[in-house]
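Suppose a classmate hands you a notebook page containing two proteins, each written out with its sequence and a corresponding row of structure tokens. How would you begin to make sense of it? This section walks through that situation. The first entry is reproduced here exactly as it would appear on such a page.
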Amino acid sequence: MGTMITKEFIRKIPKTDLHLHLDGSLRLSTLIELAKDQGVSLPSYTEAGLCETIFKEKYANLIEYLEGFRFTTAVMSTPEAIERVTFELVEDIIAEGVRYAEIRFAPQLHICDNMPIEKVVHAVSRGIEHAKSAFNKTLRNGNDIPFECGIIVCAMRSFNKYMGSYYANLLRNLSNIPKKDVYALASLELARSVVHFTKEDGLPIVGFDIAGQEAGYPAVNHKTAYQYLHNHFILKTVHAGESYGPESIFQAITECHANRIGHGTHLFAKDKIADPEIEEPAVYVNALAEYIANQRIPLEVCLTSNMQTIPEIEKVSNHPIGKMIEHNLAVSICTDNRLVSHTSVSRELELLVSNFNVGKRELKNIVLAGFKGAFYPGSYNEKRNYVRQVINRYKMVEQEESTLKD
């Protein structure tokens, strides 16, 4: 890390995490405890054993990376368990200086006989609210800004009968139609639930996402769900460009009206363009990057996660975030999965400043881009006021750092 930006400074500044999967961010100790209580079989019941067998430092590909989620989702089988892991996640991120987060999860993964979708979503909301009540008074008393949080509901690009009873029943009942149409129906049903929860129940759902294996399961399959959300003014993000090329990002923006892009790692990978009608890949990639820059479409960048799942990114300095910054794209630094990737926002920012030409000014711009690109659970004016608080807090930390050096 450069001498100008210290770990302590990164820890103190207000930060965001806009790409944070609940079921990828459990505490290992909680996973083990819940598994024992619920009779869920794990490969090991020690933290070291789980890190050796499931939650590794490096994975062969995205599919292997996602393997651990079958254990984390298995223990999130009751409202109490879901509320607990949500509360603990908020507690952990507040402790490292995150002041705004968007917790995303796929509620359909957790639906079962005694837990309909309403109970799943309300459990996450309760976990967030209880954590805010527990910690925000202390933050205010310490002249810090309050923690704010929104929920992003995820649909799955594809699924199988082993991913939960909801999916198993859907596949069985609709076995006479193509699977891609079944996937589309599931995402549309979830989209309708999101509109209901926001309008009728007043839950802090701030956006919609689609996750899962990208290659072979294009986002356009879920166009109907995204159009429905678009018609109801729900903000949208899409996992795109993580394990597929620039065309996936273009599709997310044009077909699904994405307000943000999850990952966007292969934005500049002209060699991954598969459409034969794109005769000049380099021109296409440059035009796409310029469009994203001009429209200020934020990219949710997850450095460690990408290194774990994309073999060609052998080290941090190979990550395309350097190009993203050079093109003045709106990037925010995220964790993706705190458990699966063994990381935190502070660690991700440390990797950024240690491996790229990022000084204090660039770091401030990147951090503030996270707050400005947030799907804030309030009015636009409320968001502007909150961002102003963030800027003032950031300046205060800068001044404290300067005074210590003097």
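The notebook's second entry, a different protein, reads as follows.
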Amino acid sequence: MLISVIIPVYNRPQFLQEAIESILKQTFKDIEVIVVDDGSTKELRTPNPEPRTKNDKLKSFFRPHKGVSAARNYGVSQASGKYIAFLDSDDLWLPHKLEKQIEFLHNNPEYQVCYTDEKWLRNGEHLNQMKKHAKYHGWIFDKCLPLCIISASSILMERKVFDELGGFDESLPVCEDYDLWLRMALRFPIGYLDDKLITKRGGHPDQLSHQYWGMDRFRIKALTKLLKLPLEPHERELVKQTIKEKATVLAQGAWKRRNYFRWVYYQLKAM
């Protein structure tokens, strides 16, 4: 197989079925689909994620619940493709997604990674993106610092890129994609296809972003890790400035909530 598609899933059998169907409708066919069930409860587990007809391109694995990073990393360890793609179980691909990305990478050998634009749906209704969610092309490290502009479901990369970066950080329960894209953007140019080739569906209560307060605290952890890497002086200053900005916002929130211990912690981070 040329492309291995990794789908982590946790208690989402209906979403999973629809996600798999969107992969099997791809115009590019040289793919395998690896579903990693991250410890779903027995009644919501999908031991055989194959759609109505048998397809030997589909593989499924069940593992104890360790989080989305561990599930994705395990999926990659079972992959045989030269290229790796990820699809979150609540997202969908448009039919030409992989075909257009493979064509881009083949026509632009200086790139080993590319991602696409996306449609957003919240509770079934279209949601417009804001200016801060703009996408960029090439050496985009500075553009990736404020927030996660790359959706995991949109990216396609050579397997060797993932291996060189060491995969997702399993200690991060969220913002693990932000962490990986930052490390990637430091070392590789990232191609961008200005075409809405994925649909992100939000608004459901089990989204990871709904389960943790202050997502920027996890981004600060990812940024702090970067300071241990051999950065260029201007890159180091950009990282420090971003930590300061995010810590300041968290400190202000802690003060308003009269959580003075947390306020002191983030004041010190900002300094």
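A careful reader of the second entry would note: The two ends are 50 Å apart (CA to CA).
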